[in-house]
């Protein structure tokens, strides 16, 4: 990554710029600029917005900050479009004093009635030298914020290297971002403080909507989120109140909010993708009188033309009308206007998965089942089997050597394990304590252990699946082992066992690998970075692309995805205990095990090299590619600031 850098000889550059200003007539003490604003359906700010720039090299003794220029107003914007993004570009001229020096920050004052998304600002100083500001944030009306918005240039500085003219500005901005942990957050607030996940349920709607608060306790630990400050619910003061509508406009600091283009993509894709789960009328398209599927054929029909033909003509138009009417009740008016849903998409269509498109029966093959363990959605759970039979928190597995020895391509079990060729996908221990509760709601879920054999062509061959349920007495369980079969009842049971493994793996992927490990655990790091590291700090610059949009995505997830009766509860077998289950697995999460080398070693997929901890010896034939890629990331991170 290339860091924005400070100028190599700042004092010489300042003298050069000031000399050029002083050698020109006062009318020529002008800095030209270009301001790019991304369109979002509202009129541009025009002359209702103004800019003032701060010097990074000349201190105003009366304020202790950089010298401040005169105001320049945005006038006569020109519309442009590039890669689907519509922008409006304003050119400005800013008058400065001869000793102004080099710009380092600017104030934007929005006296328009609407917010706007400021994409970038470019300033040109003598000799066509460019100062660039990568803004990518919303600027709200001054009548709401009561203050101008401050932006710093792309030059990065460690705190002790910050130009003296910017030190006070840097300090004041960090203080303002931390807030005081009080008051309800307004849309225009730029404040990052912490809170628990206490906004996932709505106890005021009834007992069935109550969920535990996640975070702040040993029983239910969880990462922190950005605080919104909503008032408590009436029936349970420890939880925040929720609106009756789907709140897609939940508080997110302006720097973290989607750009207009990203918001448009979210509305057109995500709303349409989830409408089946939030609107009863749409749901009735494919589930008339049952909450479960009766056969594999019924699932397959969801992705075929049969379902589309089932609703045609006036019936389809009537359904779309109902969906539109229902959707209007679910989302705020301002958002409903932006949703161009009805009439443009066929509600009866689900996109056909690629695997079915290529081969309708591929999903049932053992080869594909093994491939999905590494090339599917959740490749980070499989691990090398270190001991046979597998042993867990509740005792030994019932898988025996006789179950699998005939499937090891001529090797004995001892030889296969000695060559690191036996692998396990383990969804047993963490599920067992919750199965009794899960299975009281008409669900029939099992905890699973699956063994695989690594063949010489680097494919994984499934060997055996163990499915387990809690026993009739405490600390006991009932288990059954299923083996590969091609015909008869055994073949049907084998397919069913693989389906249960896939259900376990899918739930783990959605709740843990994706939501918890990718989204939730990152949010407190974003909050801490914004509160403690200035936007000019090199580490802030390094992390910025990795943090992009995460807080906004997480906020939307709390509104429609992970909340009580949300999409995950409706689609995963874990149902209403889904988030409680993710809290239980968060107890196992450790920051120092997240880097690729540590993760590979922990799962027994690589051997630790004490002399080279960033490049462990991988056990797969072609596995070293991952370690080499990791080494490249490390190198780019270490040397990015000098390139």
Structure description:
Among the domains are: 10-158, Lipoxygenase-1; 260-351, no CATH class; 352-484, Nuclear Transport Factor 2, Chain: A (Roll). The chain has 22 helices and 21 strands. The strands form 6 sheets. It has a 5-stranded antiparallel sheet with strand order 5-6-1-8-9, with no helix packed on it. Strands 2, 3, 4, 7 and 10 form a 5-stranded antiparallel sheet that branches. The longest helix has 32 residues, at 488-519. Residues 24-28 and 284-289 have low confidence and may be disordered. Residues 213-242 are annotated as: Disordered.
Fold blueprint:
Layout: H1 10-22, E1 30-38, E2 49-60, E3 65-68, E4 72-73, E5 78-82, E6 85-95, E7 103-110, E8 116-125, E9 129-139, H2 142-145, E10 149-152, H3 164-178, E11 194-195, E12 225-226, H4 260-278, H5 280-283, H6 296-301, H7 305-310, H8 313-330, H9 333-336, H10 354-358, H11 366-375, E13 383-384, E14 391-392, E15 395-396, H12 401-404, H13 413-418, E16 422-427, H14 435-438, E17 447-454, E18 460-470, E19 477-482, H15 488-519, H16 523-532, H17 538-547, H18 550-560, H19 567-571, H20 578-586, H21 596-602, E20 606-607, E21 617-618, H22 624-639
Antiparallel strand pairs: 1-6, 1-8, 2-3, 2-4, 2-7, 5-6, 7-10, 8-9, 11-12, 13-16, 14-15, 16-17, 17-18, 18-19, 20-21
